Amino acid sequence: MAATHKLNNERINVVHYYRYSSHGQQEQSIEGQARDCRAYSERMGYTVVGEYIDRALSAKTDARPEFRRMISDASKKQFQYVIVWKLDRFARNRFDSAIHKATLKKYGVKVLSVTENIADTPDGILLEGILESMAEHYSANLAENIRRGQRESILKGAHVGGVAPFGFKSVKEGDKLRLVADETNAPIIKYVFDEYAKGVPKKQIMEALTARGLLNSKGNTLSVSCLQNALRNKKYIGVYMYRGEQVEGACDALIDEETFNKVQEMLDSRSHGKNAKRVRQEYLLRGKVFCGHCGSPLTGESGAGKHGKVYFYYTCSERKKRHACDKKNEKKDFLEWYVVEQTIEHILSADRIADISARVVAEYDKNFNDTRIKEYERQVKKLDGEVNTLVDSILTMPKKAHAKIGEKIEVLETQKADIELNLVSLRISNGHRFTKEQIAAWIKNFCRGDELDADFQRRIIDLFINCVYVYDNKIVLYYNVEGGKQVSYIEPCSGADGLAPDNDEDLRVAACSDSEYSSP
Prior knowledge:
The chain is of the alpha/beta class and 520 residues long.
Protein backbone atom coordinates (compact mmCIF):
# COMPACT_ATOMS: atom_id res chain seq x y z
CA MET A 1 0.00 0.00 0.00
CA ALA A 2 2.87 2.36 0.76
CA ALA A 3 6.56 2.39 0.11
CA THR A 4 8.70 1.53 3.08
CA HIS A 5 10.61 4.49 4.44
CA LYS A 6 13.45 3.61 6.79
CA LEU A 7 14.62 5.71 9.69
CA ASN A 8 18.04 4.53 10.79
CA ASN A 9 17.17 1.09 9.39
CA GLU A 10 13.71 1.17 10.99
CA ARG A 11 10.54 1.76 9.01
CA ILE A 12 7.95 4.37 9.98
CA ASN A 13 4.62 2.65 10.63
CA VAL A 14 1.35 4.58 10.44
CA VAL A 15 -2.37 3.88 10.63
CA HIS A 16 -5.22 5.72 8.92
CA TYR A 17 -8.43 6.76 10.64
CA TYR A 18 -11.54 7.61 8.60
CA ARG A 19 -14.83 8.89 9.99
CA TYR A 20 -18.02 9.82 8.20
CA SER A 21 -21.07 11.46 9.81
CA SER A 22 -24.15 10.90 7.71
CA HIS A 23 -25.62 14.31 8.51
CA GLY A 24 -22.65 16.21 7.02
CA GLN A 25 -23.70 16.83 3.44
CA GLN A 26 -20.37 18.30 2.32
CA GLU A 27 -18.05 15.88 4.08
CA GLN A 28 -15.50 13.88 2.19
CA SER A 29 -16.62 10.27 1.80
CA ILE A 30 -14.77 7.38 3.42
CA GLU A 31 -13.44 6.42 0.00
CA GLY A 32 -12.21 9.97 -0.64
CA GLN A 33 -10.53 10.17 2.77
CA ALA A 34 -8.85 6.81 2.17
CA ARG A 35 -7.59 7.84 -1.28
CA ASP A 36 -6.02 11.07 0.02
CA CYS A 37 -4.55 9.46 3.15
CA ARG A 38 -3.00 6.61 1.15
CA ALA A 39 -1.51 9.04 -1.35
CA TYR A 40 -0.08 11.11 1.52
CA SER A 41 1.52 8.05 3.16
CA GLU A 42 2.93 6.96 -0.20
CA ARG A 43 4.40 10.42 -0.76
CA MET A 44 5.94 10.52 2.74
CA GLY A 45 7.29 6.97 2.45
CA TYR A 46 5.30 5.62 5.42
CA THR A 47 4.29 1.99 5.85
CA VAL A 48 0.54 1.69 6.46
CA VAL A 49 -0.04 -1.10 8.98
CA GLY A 50 -3.74 -0.56 9.66
CA GLU A 51 -6.90 1.37 8.82
CA TYR A 52 -9.76 2.16 11.20
CA ILE A 53 -13.15 3.19 9.83
CA ASP A 54 -16.21 4.52 11.67
CA ARG A 55 -19.25 4.88 9.43
CA ALA A 56 -22.19 6.75 10.99
CA LEU A 57 -24.84 4.31 9.80
CA SER A 58 -26.79 4.25 13.07
CA ALA A 59 -26.77 5.94 16.44
CA LYS A 60 -24.84 3.03 17.89
CA THR A 61 -21.74 3.87 15.88
CA ASP A 62 -21.32 7.18 17.69
CA ALA A 63 -19.53 5.21 20.39
CA ARG A 64 -16.86 5.06 17.65
CA PRO A 65 -15.75 1.44 18.27
CA GLU A 66 -12.98 1.62 15.66
CA PHE A 67 -11.61 4.82 17.18
CA ARG A 68 -11.50 3.20 20.60
CA ARG A 69 -9.82 0.13 19.14
CA MET A 70 -7.20 2.39 17.52
CA ILE A 71 -6.46 4.13 20.85
CA SER A 72 -6.14 0.73 22.51
CA ASP A 73 -3.88 -0.60 19.75
CA ALA A 74 -1.60 2.44 20.17
CA SER A 75 -0.53 1.03 23.54
CA LYS A 76 1.18 -1.83 21.68
CA LYS A 77 3.54 0.76 20.14
CA GLN A 78 3.37 -0.74 16.65
CA PHE A 79 2.84 2.59 14.84
CA GLN A 80 4.16 6.14 15.24
CA TYR A 81 1.48 8.26 13.51
CA VAL A 82 -2.27 8.39 13.06
CA ILE A 83 -3.06 9.89 9.64
CA VAL A 84 -6.43 11.64 9.20
CA TRP A 85 -7.93 13.53 6.26
CA LYS A 86 -8.83 16.49 8.50
CA LEU A 87 -8.34 16.96 12.22
CA ASP A 88 -12.10 17.06 12.81
CA ARG A 89 -12.18 13.41 11.63
CA PHE A 90 -10.07 12.59 14.69
CA ALA A 91 -12.22 14.35 17.28
CA ARG A 92 -15.45 16.32 17.42
CA ASN A 93 -14.04 19.30 19.32
CA ARG A 94 -10.90 20.68 20.94
CA PHE A 95 -11.60 19.20 24.37
CA ASP A 96 -11.99 15.67 22.99
CA SER A 97 -8.99 16.18 20.72
CA ALA A 98 -6.78 17.28 23.61
CA ILE A 99 -7.79 14.30 25.75
CA HIS A 100 -7.22 11.74 23.00
CA LYS A 101 -3.94 13.30 21.81
CA ALA A 102 -2.64 13.25 25.39
CA THR A 103 -3.44 9.53 25.54
CA LEU A 104 -1.67 8.83 22.25
CA LYS A 105 1.34 10.90 23.29
CA LYS A 106 1.93 8.49 26.20
CA TYR A 107 2.48 5.77 23.60
CA GLY A 108 4.71 7.93 21.38
CA VAL A 109 2.02 8.43 18.71
CA LYS A 110 1.21 11.72 16.93
CA VAL A 111 -1.75 12.77 14.79
CA LEU A 112 -1.06 14.16 11.30
CA SER A 113 -3.61 15.80 9.00
CA VAL A 114 -3.41 15.31 5.23
CA THR A 115 -5.17 18.56 4.34
CA GLU A 116 -4.22 20.89 7.20
CA ASN A 117 -1.03 22.20 8.78
CA ILE A 118 -2.83 23.57 11.80
CA ALA A 119 -6.23 23.23 13.46
CA ASP A 120 -8.52 26.10 12.43
CA THR A 121 -6.61 29.14 13.74
CA PRO A 122 -3.26 29.95 15.36
CA ASP A 123 -5.02 30.88 18.61
CA GLY A 124 -6.95 27.62 18.43
CA ILE A 125 -3.84 25.47 18.29
CA LEU A 126 -2.45 27.23 21.37
CA LEU A 127 -5.74 26.69 23.16
CA GLU A 128 -5.67 23.01 22.30
CA GLY A 129 -2.10 22.82 23.61
CA ILE A 130 -3.22 24.29 26.93
CA LEU A 131 -6.18 21.91 27.13
CA GLU A 132 -3.84 19.03 26.36
CA SER A 133 -1.50 20.20 29.10
CA MET A 134 -4.46 20.32 31.51
CA ALA A 135 -5.44 16.79 30.53
CA GLU A 136 -1.89 15.53 31.03
CA HIS A 137 -1.66 17.32 34.39
CA TYR A 138 -4.95 15.79 35.57
CA SER A 139 -3.92 12.35 34.34
CA ALA A 140 -0.48 12.65 35.95
CA ASN A 141 -1.98 13.67 39.31
CA LEU A 142 -4.47 10.83 39.18
CA ALA A 143 -1.77 8.34 38.23
CA GLU A 144 0.52 9.64 41.00
CA ASN A 145 -2.22 9.14 43.60
CA ILE A 146 -2.79 5.60 42.35
CA ARG A 147 0.94 4.87 42.36
CA ARG A 148 1.26 6.21 45.92
CA GLY A 149 -1.40 3.79 47.10
CA GLN A 150 0.14 0.91 45.17
CA ARG A 151 3.58 1.62 46.62
CA GLU A 152 2.27 1.48 50.19
CA SER A 153 0.54 -1.83 49.46
CA ILE A 154 3.67 -3.29 47.85
CA LEU A 155 5.86 -2.19 50.75
CA LYS A 156 3.54 -4.24 52.97
CA GLY A 157 4.10 -7.28 50.75
CA ALA A 158 0.78 -7.09 48.90
CA HIS A 159 0.08 -8.04 45.28
CA VAL A 160 -1.70 -5.03 43.74
CA GLY A 161 -3.62 -6.93 41.09
CA GLY A 162 -3.15 -8.07 37.52
CA VAL A 163 -2.30 -11.53 36.24
CA ALA A 164 0.15 -13.38 38.45
CA PRO A 165 3.44 -14.19 36.66
CA PHE A 166 3.83 -17.79 35.50
CA GLY A 167 4.95 -19.92 38.44
CA PHE A 168 3.00 -17.87 40.99
CA LYS A 169 -0.54 -17.79 42.23
CA SER A 170 -2.28 -14.99 44.08
CA VAL A 171 -3.71 -15.94 47.48
CA LYS A 172 -5.42 -13.89 50.15
CA GLU A 173 -3.53 -13.49 53.41
CA GLY A 174 -5.58 -11.52 55.87
CA ASP A 175 -6.83 -8.39 54.10
CA LYS A 176 -4.28 -8.45 51.24
CA LEU A 177 -3.25 -10.53 48.24
CA ARG A 178 0.20 -12.11 48.06
CA LEU A 179 2.16 -13.91 45.35
CA VAL A 180 3.15 -17.41 46.45
CA ALA A 181 4.69 -20.36 44.60
CA ASP A 182 2.35 -22.35 42.37
CA GLU A 183 3.11 -26.01 43.15
CA THR A 184 2.43 -27.05 39.53
CA ASN A 185 4.27 -24.34 37.56
CA ALA A 186 7.05 -23.18 39.94
CA PRO A 187 9.24 -26.22 39.04
CA ILE A 188 8.93 -25.28 35.34
CA ILE A 189 10.36 -21.82 36.06
CA LYS A 190 13.27 -23.43 37.93
CA TYR A 191 13.85 -25.75 34.95
CA VAL A 192 13.96 -22.77 32.55
CA PHE A 193 16.53 -20.87 34.63
CA ASP A 194 18.69 -23.95 35.22
CA GLU A 195 18.73 -24.87 31.52
CA TYR A 196 19.60 -21.38 30.36
CA ALA A 197 22.35 -21.12 33.00
CA LYS A 198 23.83 -24.30 31.49
CA GLY A 199 24.01 -22.61 28.10
CA VAL A 200 20.94 -24.18 26.48
CA PRO A 201 19.55 -21.77 23.80
CA LYS A 202 16.17 -20.16 24.43
CA LYS A 203 14.69 -21.67 21.28
CA GLN A 204 15.62 -25.16 22.44
CA ILE A 205 14.13 -24.52 25.89
CA MET A 206 10.91 -23.32 24.26
CA GLU A 207 10.71 -26.43 22.08
CA ALA A 208 11.07 -28.60 25.17
CA LEU A 209 8.29 -26.72 26.95
CA THR A 210 6.02 -26.90 23.91
CA ALA A 211 6.63 -30.65 23.71
CA ARG A 212 5.36 -30.87 27.27
CA GLY A 213 2.16 -29.15 26.11
CA LEU A 214 2.86 -25.91 27.96
CA LEU A 215 0.79 -22.94 26.72
CA ASN A 216 0.49 -19.29 27.76
CA SER A 217 -2.54 -17.81 29.56
CA LYS A 218 -4.35 -17.33 26.21
CA GLY A 219 -3.87 -20.94 25.15
CA ASN A 220 -1.13 -20.20 22.60
CA THR A 221 2.39 -21.59 22.34
CA LEU A 222 5.08 -19.70 24.21
CA SER A 223 7.07 -16.98 22.45
CA VAL A 224 10.73 -16.00 22.73
CA SER A 225 9.75 -12.62 24.19
CA CYS A 226 7.70 -14.39 26.87
CA LEU A 227 10.72 -16.46 27.84
CA GLN A 228 12.98 -13.38 27.75
CA ASN A 229 10.66 -11.50 30.11
CA ALA A 230 10.54 -14.43 32.50
CA LEU A 231 14.33 -14.65 32.65
CA ARG A 232 14.51 -10.95 33.58
CA ASN A 233 11.74 -11.01 36.21
CA LYS A 234 13.11 -10.30 39.68
CA LYS A 235 9.94 -11.58 41.31
CA TYR A 236 11.43 -15.05 40.86
CA ILE A 237 14.04 -14.21 43.55
CA GLY A 238 11.40 -12.64 45.81
CA VAL A 239 12.06 -9.02 44.78
CA TYR A 240 9.17 -6.80 43.71
CA MET A 241 10.31 -3.92 41.48
CA TYR A 242 8.13 -0.80 41.60
CA ARG A 243 9.20 2.33 39.68
CA GLY A 244 12.88 1.54 40.19
CA GLU A 245 12.46 0.71 43.87
CA GLN A 246 13.19 -2.80 45.15
CA VAL A 247 10.92 -4.39 47.73
CA GLU A 248 12.49 -7.60 48.99
CA GLY A 249 10.42 -10.43 50.40
CA ALA A 250 7.20 -9.15 48.80
CA CYS A 251 6.65 -12.57 47.16
CA ASP A 252 8.02 -16.11 47.36
CA ALA A 253 11.47 -16.75 45.84
CA LEU A 254 11.38 -19.50 43.19
CA ILE A 255 15.03 -19.18 42.08
CA ASP A 256 18.23 -18.77 44.08
CA GLU A 257 20.07 -15.48 43.56
CA GLU A 258 23.26 -17.11 42.27
CA THR A 259 21.43 -18.74 39.35
CA PHE A 260 19.42 -15.59 38.64
CA ASN A 261 22.53 -13.38 38.55
CA LYS A 262 24.36 -15.80 36.25
CA VAL A 263 21.41 -15.73 33.84
CA GLN A 264 21.41 -11.91 33.85
CA GLU A 265 25.12 -11.82 32.98
CA MET A 266 24.55 -14.21 30.09
CA LEU A 267 21.60 -12.21 28.79
CA ASP A 268 23.58 -8.97 28.99
CA SER A 269 26.61 -10.35 27.18
CA ARG A 270 24.49 -11.75 24.32
CA SER A 271 22.37 -8.65 23.81
CA HIS A 272 24.97 -5.92 24.25
CA GLY A 273 26.41 -6.03 20.74
CA LYS A 274 23.03 -6.30 19.06
CA ASN A 275 21.38 -3.51 21.06
CA ALA A 276 24.36 -1.21 20.67
CA LYS A 277 23.63 -0.95 16.95
CA ARG A 278 19.94 -0.15 17.44
CA VAL A 279 19.66 3.56 18.08
CA ARG A 280 16.23 4.98 17.51
CA GLN A 281 16.03 8.64 16.63
CA GLU A 282 12.93 10.81 16.83
CA TYR A 283 12.81 13.55 14.22
CA LEU A 284 10.95 16.27 16.10
CA LEU A 285 10.19 18.40 13.02
CA ARG A 286 8.83 15.53 10.93
CA GLY A 287 5.61 16.58 9.19
CA LYS A 288 6.34 20.27 9.79
CA VAL A 289 9.59 20.89 7.93
CA PHE A 290 9.81 21.44 4.16
CA CYS A 291 12.43 22.15 1.53
CA GLY A 292 12.63 25.86 0.75
CA HIS A 293 13.83 25.10 -2.80
CA CYS A 294 11.07 22.75 -4.02
CA GLY A 295 8.52 22.59 -1.20
CA SER A 296 8.86 18.83 -0.62
CA PRO A 297 8.89 17.42 2.94
CA LEU A 298 12.25 16.92 4.66
CA THR A 299 12.55 13.38 5.96
CA GLY A 300 14.89 11.64 8.39
CA GLU A 301 18.16 10.13 7.17
CA SER A 302 21.32 8.79 8.79
CA GLY A 303 24.85 7.99 7.69
CA ALA A 304 28.15 6.88 9.19
CA GLY A 305 31.31 8.99 9.13
CA LYS A 306 34.89 7.89 8.48
CA HIS A 307 35.36 6.66 12.04
CA GLY A 308 32.00 4.88 12.30
CA LYS A 309 30.12 7.65 14.11
CA VAL A 310 26.48 7.85 13.01
CA TYR A 311 25.12 11.25 11.94
CA PHE A 312 21.44 12.15 11.59
CA TYR A 313 20.05 14.54 8.98
CA TYR A 314 16.95 16.01 7.47
CA THR A 315 17.03 15.51 3.71
CA CYS A 316 14.75 16.70 0.90
CA SER A 317 12.47 13.81 -0.10
CA GLU A 318 12.49 14.99 -3.73
CA ARG A 319 16.28 14.94 -3.79
CA LYS A 320 16.40 11.54 -2.08
CA LYS A 321 13.85 9.83 -4.35
CA ARG A 322 14.39 11.48 -7.72
CA HIS A 323 17.59 13.53 -7.37
CA ALA A 324 15.49 16.44 -8.63
CA CYS A 325 16.48 19.01 -5.99
CA ASP A 326 19.88 20.41 -4.99
CA LYS A 327 18.97 21.19 -1.33
CA LYS A 328 21.81 20.25 1.03
CA ASN A 329 21.18 17.95 3.99
CA GLU A 330 20.58 19.63 7.34
CA LYS A 331 22.01 18.23 10.55
CA LYS A 332 19.14 17.06 12.75
CA ASP A 333 20.49 18.30 16.09
CA PHE A 334 21.38 21.72 14.77
CA LEU A 335 18.10 22.32 12.94
CA GLU A 336 15.91 21.29 15.89
CA TRP A 337 17.95 23.35 18.35
CA TYR A 338 17.97 26.37 16.03
CA VAL A 339 14.21 26.31 15.49
CA VAL A 340 13.61 26.12 19.25
CA GLU A 341 16.17 28.83 20.00
CA GLN A 342 14.58 31.19 17.46
CA THR A 343 11.11 30.40 18.78
CA ILE A 344 12.07 31.22 22.36
CA GLU A 345 13.66 34.49 21.24
CA HIS A 346 10.70 35.44 19.05
CA ILE A 347 7.81 34.34 21.28
CA LEU A 348 8.87 35.09 24.85
CA SER A 349 8.85 38.89 24.82
CA ALA A 350 6.53 40.47 27.39
CA ASP A 351 4.37 42.11 24.71
CA ARG A 352 4.09 38.90 22.70
CA ILE A 353 3.09 36.81 25.74
CA ALA A 354 0.48 39.37 26.78
CA ASP A 355 -0.99 39.38 23.26
CA ILE A 356 -1.02 35.58 23.01
CA SER A 357 -2.67 35.27 26.43
CA ALA A 358 -5.44 37.69 25.49
CA ARG A 359 -6.11 35.84 22.24
CA VAL A 360 -6.17 32.42 23.90
CA VAL A 361 -8.68 33.61 26.51
CA ALA A 362 -10.83 35.05 23.72
CA GLU A 363 -10.59 31.79 21.78
CA TYR A 364 -11.56 29.84 24.90
CA ASP A 365 -14.59 32.06 25.50
CA LYS A 366 -15.59 31.63 21.85
CA ASN A 367 -15.30 27.84 21.94
CA PHE A 368 -16.78 27.19 25.38
CA ASN A 369 -19.65 29.42 26.46
CA ASP A 370 -23.27 29.33 27.58
CA THR A 371 -24.50 30.52 24.19
CA ARG A 372 -23.08 27.47 22.45
CA ILE A 373 -24.49 25.20 25.17
CA LYS A 374 -27.96 26.65 24.62
CA GLU A 375 -27.57 26.28 20.86
CA TYR A 376 -26.68 22.60 21.23
CA GLU A 377 -29.63 22.09 23.59
CA ARG A 378 -31.90 23.76 21.03
CA GLN A 379 -30.59 21.45 18.29
CA VAL A 380 -31.20 18.36 20.43
CA LYS A 381 -34.77 19.50 21.15
CA LYS A 382 -35.38 20.15 17.44
CA LEU A 383 -34.07 16.69 16.47
CA ASP A 384 -36.29 15.06 19.12
CA GLY A 385 -39.26 16.82 17.56
CA GLU A 386 -38.37 15.63 14.06
CA VAL A 387 -37.94 12.04 15.26
CA ASN A 388 -41.30 12.11 17.07
CA THR A 389 -42.98 13.47 13.93
CA LEU A 390 -41.52 10.67 11.81
CA VAL A 391 -42.57 8.03 14.35
CA ASP A 392 -46.13 9.39 14.31
CA SER A 393 -46.13 9.39 10.50
CA ILE A 394 -45.51 5.64 10.39
CA LEU A 395 -49.09 5.12 11.59
CA THR A 396 -50.51 6.84 8.51
CA MET A 397 -47.94 6.00 5.85
CA PRO A 398 -48.07 2.84 3.70
CA LYS A 399 -45.80 -0.05 4.70
CA LYS A 400 -43.54 0.40 1.69
CA ALA A 401 -42.51 3.81 3.09
CA HIS A 402 -41.65 2.47 6.56
CA ALA A 403 -38.10 1.43 5.60
CA LYS A 404 -37.19 4.90 4.33
CA ILE A 405 -38.73 6.51 7.40
CA GLY A 406 -36.71 4.17 9.59
CA GLU A 407 -33.50 5.13 7.79
CA LYS A 408 -34.28 8.82 8.27
CA ILE A 409 -34.89 8.24 11.97
CA GLU A 410 -31.50 6.53 12.25
CA VAL A 411 -29.80 9.49 10.60
CA LEU A 412 -31.49 11.93 13.00
CA GLU A 413 -30.60 9.77 16.01
CA THR A 414 -26.97 9.76 14.83
CA GLN A 415 -26.98 13.56 14.63
CA LYS A 416 -28.52 13.79 18.08
CA ALA A 417 -25.97 11.43 19.65
CA ASP A 418 -23.13 13.39 18.04
CA ILE A 419 -24.45 16.70 19.38
CA GLU A 420 -25.09 15.26 22.85
CA LEU A 421 -21.46 14.12 23.06
CA ASN A 422 -20.36 17.61 22.05
CA LEU A 423 -22.67 19.02 24.69
CA VAL A 424 -21.12 16.90 27.46
CA SER A 425 -17.59 17.96 26.50
CA LEU A 426 -18.66 21.60 26.22
CA ARG A 427 -20.21 21.61 29.69
CA ILE A 428 -17.02 20.13 31.16
CA SER A 429 -14.83 22.69 29.38
CA ASN A 430 -17.14 25.55 30.31
CA GLY A 431 -16.48 24.79 33.96
CA HIS A 432 -12.82 25.85 33.59
CA ARG A 433 -12.21 29.59 33.21
CA PHE A 434 -8.80 31.16 32.61
CA THR A 435 -7.50 34.68 33.08
CA LYS A 436 -4.85 36.32 30.90
CA GLU A 437 -2.48 36.21 33.85
CA GLN A 438 -2.93 32.45 34.25
CA ILE A 439 -2.30 31.83 30.55
CA ALA A 440 0.79 34.08 30.60
CA ALA A 441 2.18 32.22 33.62
CA TRP A 442 1.51 28.88 31.89
CA ILE A 443 3.32 29.98 28.71
CA LYS A 444 6.34 31.23 30.65
CA ASN A 445 6.56 28.01 32.63
CA PHE A 446 5.95 25.89 29.54
CA CYS A 447 8.77 27.62 27.66
CA ARG A 448 11.33 27.38 30.46
CA GLY A 449 13.92 24.65 29.92
CA ASP A 450 17.14 23.50 28.29
CA GLU A 451 17.14 24.26 24.56
CA LEU A 452 19.29 21.16 23.94
CA ASP A 453 16.91 18.84 25.83
CA ALA A 454 14.79 16.69 23.48
CA ASP A 455 11.69 16.76 25.71
CA PHE A 456 11.81 20.55 25.94
CA GLN A 457 12.38 20.86 22.19
CA ARG A 458 9.39 18.58 21.54
CA ARG A 459 7.11 20.74 23.72
CA ILE A 460 8.06 23.95 21.94
CA ILE A 461 7.84 22.45 18.44
CA ASP A 462 4.50 20.74 19.07
CA LEU A 463 2.84 23.86 20.46
CA PHE A 464 4.30 26.81 18.55
CA ILE A 465 5.62 25.56 15.21
CA ASN A 466 3.17 25.46 12.31
CA CYS A 467 5.72 24.71 9.58
CA VAL A 468 9.34 25.44 8.67
CA TYR A 469 10.80 26.08 5.21
CA VAL A 470 14.56 25.44 5.09
CA TYR A 471 16.87 26.95 2.47
CA ASP A 472 20.65 26.51 2.36
CA ASN A 473 21.24 29.89 3.99
CA LYS A 474 17.99 30.85 5.69
CA ILE A 475 14.98 29.41 7.47
CA VAL A 476 11.39 30.68 7.26
CA LEU A 477 9.33 29.77 10.31
CA TYR A 478 5.55 29.99 10.59
CA TYR A 479 4.27 30.04 14.14
CA ASN A 480 0.85 29.26 15.59
CA VAL A 481 0.44 32.90 16.66
CA GLU A 482 -0.73 36.05 14.93
CA GLY A 483 2.12 37.80 13.14
CA GLY A 484 3.88 34.46 13.27
CA LYS A 485 6.14 34.52 10.23
CA GLN A 486 9.84 34.84 10.90
CA VAL A 487 12.83 34.78 8.56
CA SER A 488 16.15 33.78 10.11
CA TYR A 489 19.56 33.61 8.45
CA ILE A 490 21.60 30.68 9.72
CA GLU A 491 24.72 31.53 11.67
CA PRO A 492 27.40 28.81 11.91
CA CYS A 493 27.92 27.62 15.48
CA SER A 494 31.66 27.26 15.92
CA GLY A 495 32.66 25.22 18.95
CA ALA A 496 29.20 23.63 19.34
CA ASP A 497 30.04 20.00 18.66
CA GLY A 498 27.38 18.23 16.65
CA LEU A 499 25.36 21.38 16.01
CA ALA A 500 27.19 23.31 13.31
CA PRO A 501 25.78 23.03 9.78
CA ASP A 502 27.91 21.97 6.84
CA ASN A 503 28.81 25.39 5.49
CA ASP A 504 31.43 28.00 6.24
CA GLU A 505 29.54 31.09 5.12
CA ASP A 506 29.80 34.06 7.45
CA LEU A 507 26.09 34.64 7.98
CA ARG A 508 24.35 36.62 10.66
CA VAL A 509 21.06 35.94 12.43
CA ALA A 510 18.42 38.50 11.52
CA ALA A 511 14.81 37.99 12.59
CA CYS A 512 11.80 39.92 11.39
CA SER A 513 8.03 39.52 11.71
CA ASP A 514 5.20 40.19 9.31
CA SER A 515 2.40 42.40 10.57
CA GLU A 516 -0.14 39.65 9.99
CA TYR A 517 -0.02 35.89 10.33
CA SER A 518 0.16 34.17 6.97
CA SER A 519 -0.09 30.44 6.38
CA PRO A 520 2.03 29.02 3.55
